[in-house]
Amino acid sequence: MHYFQFPGFRSLHADNCGCAMLSPPWIHPRRKLGSSVLIVGYRGRVPIVNMDEEYWIAPGTVTLLPAGQIHYGSQAISAPAMYFWFHFTTLKPPVIVEAEEADTIFSDPAITSHKLDGAALLPLHFILEDAEPVHQIFHDLLYEQENPSYTSLKFQIMFQGLIIRLTECVIAGHQPGAAGSTRTSVAYDIVTWLTEHLTDPNLSIKMISAAIGLNPDYAGRRFKETMGLSVGEYVLKKRVEMAIRFLQETGETVERIAGQCGFGTVRNFLRQFKAERGMTPTEIRKRHRIMHVNSL
Predict the structure, then answer these.
(1) CA-CA distance, 47 to 285, in Å (whole number)?
(2) Under a CB-based contact definition with an 8 Å cutoff, are residues 24 and 76 in contact?
(3) What pTM does this model have?
């Protein structure tokens, strides 16, 4: 199985949508489009070949046709059919991901959140457990297209919401492949271990690799292949996120928060925090209070 990796939503543009109502003996024409297409089946069955794989568009199915790839009907339909379609474009060519890499991304909530932050990942063809909410989103999109808001941004946000909803469905129903990935397993073990030891100021890749029974170089290399950043960079990211929660939700001093989040010294905390976020802890706290806290 192949997956369509959506880039950051800022580079995603919703073009237009519609509803195809088809009668026999219609057959999907052979096409190679400059835009990608998302199709959600509603009634009947429509066969289509995409990237040398034959799919059946049927009630509750979702099919993605990447831009630049030839797709066509493998045979004429034998009964009336209907499906929703949506054309969209991305700034860069679509990225097609193999099933093993998708398993890696979906293997753990922490990995999923990190890899898909501001993005999405969908199989080229899958079946929805409950298609009705998605059908309703399409009805809303069609209405917005015909009766547009004062700002075109609403249509874009609604489409992004659809993609997020579909990705949530895929995550909820994901079943790992039969052949587990060693790379995935290492990242999962490290992320899991770190949830309990993130605040240890003596944390190191040697300590982590010893705890999970692996060579430090091997563990670090496998982790970076999966996550796209080193163990140290991941630890810093998570510690800073923890510190921001403390800054926004408590009245603890900066010094105490530094210790609670595993930073060895306040000096290191201030330096690393600003390098990561571009602001000091005090500036983050002040901005949050100005925006969210009212004193009565």
Answers:
(1) 56
(2) yes
(3) 0.78
154 half-sphere exposure, CB direction, 13 A CA radius: 12
pLDDT digits 0-9 by tens, 271-296 = 999 999 999 999 999 998 888 765 54
Cβ(108)–Cβ(195) under 8 Å?
Answer: no
| 8 Å CB contact between 48 and 100 | no
What is the b/e burial string over 67-77, where b = at least 16 CB atoms within 10 angstroms of the residue's CB?
bebebebeeeb
Neighbours of 251 (CB within 10 A): 8
Chain position carrying tokens 């990608």: 36
The tokens for 115 are 């890899």
* Domains located in the chain, CATH noted: 2-173 (2.60.120.280), 181-296 (1.10.10.60)
Alpha helix segments (H runs only) across the chain: 99-106, 109-115, 132-146, 153-173, 182-197, 205-212, 216-227, 231-249, 254-260, 266-277, 281-292
Render pLDDT for 219-256 as a digit per residue (tens, 0 to 9): 999 898 888 899 999 999 999 999 999 999 999 999 99
- The CA–CA distances, whole Å, from 274 to 127, 243, 283 equal 45, 12, 10
Cβ within 8 Å of residue 267, ≥6 positions away: none
Q: Residue 86's closest CA among 21, 35, 148? A: 35
Report yes or no: 62 and 48 within 8 Å, Cβ to Cβ. Answer: no
Q: At what angle do helices 132-146 and 153-173 cross, to 10 degrees?
A: 170
Cα end-to-end span (Å), the chain: 57
What type of residue is 107? S
